[in-house]
Structures are given as structure tokens and as C-alpha cells.
Specification:
202 residues; mainly alpha; 81% helix; 0% strand
């Protein structure tokens, strides 16, 4: 049975973030569809020139070389993969927005899978996009794990045991306090005076 968690503003912010990633990848997939049966390499050259990148540099050169050897079938495969990825992200974002526990587990696991890769990219060459992506991803994963832990402790089966223990502890403290109040009065006093005194102290 699906467990519904308390929806917070932070959780919905994470949901919007995941939905935005899905939307960006979906737009990229549709853009790839538009290049099928067209000269992708020429379009890539125009893009590099428009962004004022140096085509002789490392990354622009890799990008241009890849587009030169891409076939239509490969474009179809990448576009379909982008579509599947975006659907998965939209489902996850919807689950997070509604406060579903499975969505938090899924977000924490999938986000954690990218952290080693992002750390490797930062080690290879520090840049603001890489560092920002790593920090944001670590923050999202940490938040989701923290929320899952809090809900398991405070709202799940273990949480119920924890709450029962707290209630038992409060009851024992109250009984001990009432016993101390009764002991302050002589045992020879009538019971009604002791009860009246306890009521006045309360």
C-alpha cells in the first residue's frame, strides 16, 4: 500500500526541479526528432558559431565530431531514450508533489546514482556548472533521505513504537509526580483532604 507523506514546500520545490529536468530533456528529444533526415553536422557547426565557441577547442571539437558520424537510427534511439527519461521524471515529480513515499525513495536512489559521476567530472576539471550540479544533487538527495528517515521514525511502524514509548514515559513521570504530591501530606489526614490538596496543586 502506498504511503502518503506530509507535503512540504521543500518537497514540492524538489518536485518542480525534477519536473524541470524532464521538460528540458523532452525539449531536447523533440529537437533531435527535427534533425532526422537532415544535416546534423551543419546545424552543429552553426550552433558552435552562434555561441562564439572555438571549434578547435576540446569539447566543441568532440561535439562536432560526434554530430558528423551520427546516423538517423542513432538519432531515433537517443530521442526515444530522452522521451522515456522525461516520462520517468514527470512521474517522479508528480509523486513528490503528492507526497508519495515511493517517489522520495526513487528520487533519492536515482539522484545518488549520479553523484559519483558528477564527482568524477568535477575532479577532471572544476567548473561552475559541474560544481553547481553536484551541490544541488547532493542537497536534493540529502533532503529526501532526511525526509524518509523522519517519516519512518515519526510516522511509520517504528514511529508508532517511538510515540508509544514517549507516551509511556510521560505517563510514568506523571504518576511519579502525583505520588510525590500525596507523600507531602501526613498519612493520618483523611483521604478527602489529600484529594483536595492534589486538586489544588493541579
Amino acid at each position: 500500500m502506498t504511503t502518503k507523506l506530509r507535503v512540504t514546500k521543500a518537497l514540492r520545490t524538489v518536485a518542480l526541479f525534477e519536473g524541470a529536468k524532464g521538460a528540458l530533456v523532452l525539449l531536447a528529444g523533440f529537437e533531435l526528432f527535427s534533425f532526422i533526415h537532415k544535416d546534423l553536422h551543419r546545424a552543429a557547426v552553426r550552433l558552435v558559431e552562434h555561441l562564439h565557441f572555438n571549434p578547435a577547442k576540446h569539447y566543441p571539437r568532440i561535439f562536432l565530431d560526434l554530430t558528423e558520424h551520427v546516423t538517423d537510427s542513432q538519432l531515433w534511439a537517443v530521442a526515444v531514450a530522452a522521451l522515456i527519461y522525461s516520462v520517468v521524471r514527470f512521474v517522479e515529480a508528480t509523486g513528490l508533489w503528492l507526497g508519495k513515499k515511493w517517489a522520495e525513495w526513487f528520487g533519492a536512489l536515482t539522484g545518488g546514482m549520479y553523484i559519483p559521476i558528477e564527482i568524477y567530472e568535477v575532479i577532471r576539471g572544476i567548473s561552475w556548472p559541474n560544481v553547481t550540479l553536484l551541490v544541488v544533487n547532493i542537497g536534493v538527495v540529502f533532503y529526501l533521505i532526511q525526509e524518509l528517515y523522519k517519516k519512518d521514525v515519526g510516522g511509520g511502524p517504528n514511529g508508532a513504537i517511538f510515540d508509544n514509548r514517549k507516551n509511556i514515559r510521560r505517563t510514568n513521570l506523571k504518576e511519579a509526580s502525583d505520588t510525590k504530591v500525596v507523600r507531602r501530606y501526613p498519612a493520618t489526614l483523611p483521604t478527602r483532604y489529600c484529594r483536595k490538596a492534589i486538586g489544588d496543586d493541579a
